[in-house]
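Title: Request for sanity check on Transposase prediction

Description:
We are preparing a figure and want to confirm that the structure record we downloaded matches what your pipeline produces today. Could someone re-run it with the sequence below and paste the raw structure tokens into this thread? We only need the token string, no images.
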Amino acid sequence: MTTPEEDEEGSGHARHTYRLRMSSTALATLLVEWDRCRWVWNQCVAESRAAHKAKQECGPAKLDKMLTGWRAGHEWLREGTSVPQQQIIRDFARSRAKALKDIKARLPIKQRAGMPRFKKKDLAAPTLNYTRRGFRLKNGRLHLAGGITLTVVWSRDLPADPSSVRVYRDSIGHWYASFVVPAETRPLPENGQAIGIDWGVKETATTTSDGHDLPHHQYGRKAADRLARYQRKMARRKPKRGQAASKGYRKAKRQAAKVYKKIARQRQDTARKWAKRVTADFDQIAVEDFRPKFLAKSTMARKAADAVISATKRELINMARKHGRDLRLVHPAHTTMDCGHCGARTKHALPLSERTYACTACGAISPRDKNSACVMLVRAGLIPAGVDRVRLDRSLNDRAA
């Protein structure tokens, strides 16, 4: 399986993920290596909390020096390679810096990134990162530092030499290798077409082109009955505190994980195919910069989560960047109140039950979401043919009904 996606390190890189096959010896060695990395992470958490109480700094440089001391004082830690242990410190420092940034920005507690916590053996999924000096590809196999050899299922060739690799295990128990490579740019021929996109819950994406609307497929709702059956099995077989899980509990847990995995893949596949179609048919794309986090607190939380608006928007942004399309993010404020034809703004916000937008200034009547999609084009400066009476020299705050 290959899943190219933008890397978190920057827009100049992308990840390509492949399934791994491994022997029992390689699996045991990987798990031991993960135990060492998990121990390093937990030590970083402990040192960070102690430094916070003492009002001292605990940056990556200080933790690197501590790692040298830890390896010198523990022979079993020294037996493992230092590359993934150094990378786990980098991951910890990045996670801690993000949490501190949110605290300094005085974001609400529910919107902050949490401070790093201890990784428990039975709950934390194994994840090991290797830089270029910690791995190599030879004869189609992945050779990691420490003498670990893994067989990669090459669904297709890598576009370039990878700079790093992440080896991890998912909830089902499958192992994957995620390679970081330079992002490809494959410009598509221009056709002079523009499209506006508005996000929603009833339909995941409503556009100015009827043929490119993305309906809400409700993959999670369709699988809810099957998922509930496995969760009931888990509840009946749940082990008591301190006892090992039974075979029936582990089987039901794996079945539930398979359902979740299938739902995630369906959502991802649908989002990528839609994003590919939009970027192939339009040169200029105006997208609502919608942040659906607040929907988690509303009565539409489950339906909004099933729509995966954020993931769909991310796939569209990545696809537009890959194919050299002009994508513009539009602020979502007042997009349901402005008229997409004349730019006038209603005096009161429309309730969700009102699905038709009627402009009192120009008399235009259109579906609410379609009107919002037209507003995206106007605000982005991509006015389609036929739109008149719109003055782009006026700010959005100056437009009044």
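Thanks, this matches our download. Residues 96 and 116 are 6 Å apart (CA to CA).
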